[in-house]
## 1
Amino acid sequence: MKYQGDSLRKFSSQILFALEQYKSPSLDINQFDNIILCGLGGSGIAARITKSYFAEISTKPIEVISDYFLPKYTSSKSLVILSSYSGNTEETLLMYNEAKSKGAGIVTITTGGQLGQLAKEDGFPIYAAETGFQPRMALGYSLSYLLLIFGEFFGIDTASQLKSAASELSDVDRYIDAAREIFNNQIKHDLTGKICVVADAFSNPVALRFCQQIQENAKAEAFLSELPEANHNVIESYYGQLPGHIIFLNSGIHLRTNLRFDFIENLLKEEGNHPIKMQIDHSNLTDYLEKIYILDWISLLIADAKGLDSSNIRNINSLKNYLSTN
């Protein structure tokens, strides 16, 4: 909160900015066989959230790529949406060039940089974000644009849902209070251990977002386990009192997965552990965004409690400098 709090407070205004700036990409989704969402780190998490949110609605396969290259099947029948907050992410720029060479449909989300320049020169749609944020704190822009684009593709009024969500999220102190309650009651007593988030398929991107925020903001290890898969392996590590914290993010989307959450909760408690439980309403976009927001604030509370500068990403910047000279 001390270092990134001002940026995080602007989450709702980012959503409103995207709503005001949005214009239809004028694309017929029926002309494409698949949709490929490209982005890394803070610019990539919006793609995973969007894929999850539209998983049961989309009539087209959706793939999320966080790498240097596109799938082999990418063709002129593919729609490739690339997000890079800075516009200079090297992986995303390579994927842009590959998408262009294959004649794919292209849409970009960026503040500018090389990606914005290329898209402008080539005549592809550009959805602009405001500058001045670290990429992970600019989620409201890329996520809103993607939700609006997909809503248009599949006949869902995501604009109204986003307006409603932005209205709720503007009451920032309410979410800080919710985060502080969880932090004070269940996390503050142990700031040295790892954080493991147990999620289902729908809540997976929210869990991943939280892990990334813990890693970047609080400089701590955080891991994601997804059910039911984790019940076929990770469950065998649940013996005795475990270090750190275990957080459940359950959307309730599948009754059998609910049973798995119940079993793990009882197992962990028998071993002396106290998992933190958060329910996500898979049918409610506002609730989905609220949970992301609360968890973001928790990551900053942990950073503050540890006396860390959450805006200092020394290792990431060192890697970028290394790659730029090699």
Note: The longest strand covers residues 78-84.
## 2
Amino acid sequence: MNWGWLLLRIAIGSGVLTLLFLSQRFWYRSLWRISANWGNASLRVAVRFLYVTALLLVILATADGVRLSHGHIIPRGSLITILAGLWFFSALFAFLAVILVRSLDRLWTLLRRSLRSTPAPAQQVHASSPAAALHGPIELLRDPSRRYFFKSATAVAGVSPFLCAAYGFAAERLNYKIRRVEIPVANLPPALDGLQVVQLSDIHLSGYMPRTEVRRAVDMANELGADLAVVTGDFITGAGDSLADCIDEIRRLRAPLGVWGCNGNHEIYARAEDEAQRLFGQAGLRLLRQENAQLTFKGAQFNLIGVDYQRERTAGGQKVQALAQLQPLVRRDMPNILLSHNPNSFNRAAELGIELSLAGHTHGGQIQVEILDHRLSPARFITDYVAGLYQRPLFAPSQTVVSQTYLPSLILQHPAASLYVNRGLGTVGAPVRIGVPPEITLLVLRSA
């Protein structure tokens, strides 16, 4: 048992629960404080009662939704579960935004007080000079405007996350985008140059992702006319979701080289890895589990490998090596393509000489904002490979850190291994996407 890892997980879990509790307490107390000024007692009591009732339902729906097993009290995808996800997400970020604005207000007040307590210079200060704003009656006239500014900023900070969540749920969550990406592949035979692979990932068929939406994504993928179709894991979210319905839609994918897939971490949570393999087989598809297959395109062959979700630690917290015992499946006489849901297996894949890895798992973070020319995503807490195309030197030791800026010069000197991380179709947690629309990828292989 790795006690340090266990304590870290407990600390993170406790921190998240504490923030959720503080955010709910904040909005609860805010409503009580605002409604206390209402003259109509009946209205005040009614609103408070409705709020408490709704909050209890939200807590129940959230606790019920966290369980990934069968037998949910509240059906997934019901209005209550949708509102619960939106409320907890919005309330938490609104709470943090309000606290940030109030902290800036306090900091500004302290700064003004410290400047005001500084002795004025001996020389006379002209009433219209900037210094007069810090000393004298003019400063008192500015206080109301400062209070109005921070009061308005607090209101905007409190409302914005709710509006963004509503937009992310209604507008971007099901706004599928097709991305066409050309990927340089080392050791690619001329006949395979231009091979097209359509990739779906992280479907998460559930109450938030109905079967009709999966069908729409499959239809869009079929219109691309790819040579090979792959689905890189997380077909469902939990055991209560219909894996059979999801795979029944996946079987509608059409590609001359077939439809192939691998399991994700949510198949582990749902204990559905074996069932997914069985249903794939019944549908005439192939789910690769620590297996490989040689496919031929225009007379040239490539080696397609698939693995179950690659854990990075055991249940006891011990680190484990990704892609253990995979080396015998790697071919040296043809290019290798790996289907591995977890993008963190890429370093080991490159070390093994696998030219191309296809992954998902991150959803691109589901939310992405750009600040000072840097894209910030929650997925960066779990991986360096958030979304899109990445490369590192082929056969480089997996522990080697390759910076994004230094990478091009390395690629000029050494063959490169490539990774593409699909942003996925579905969502987990809050049913929201902001700045990270769901993705259907058309990958075009090119000779490096």
Note: The radius of gyration is 27 Å.
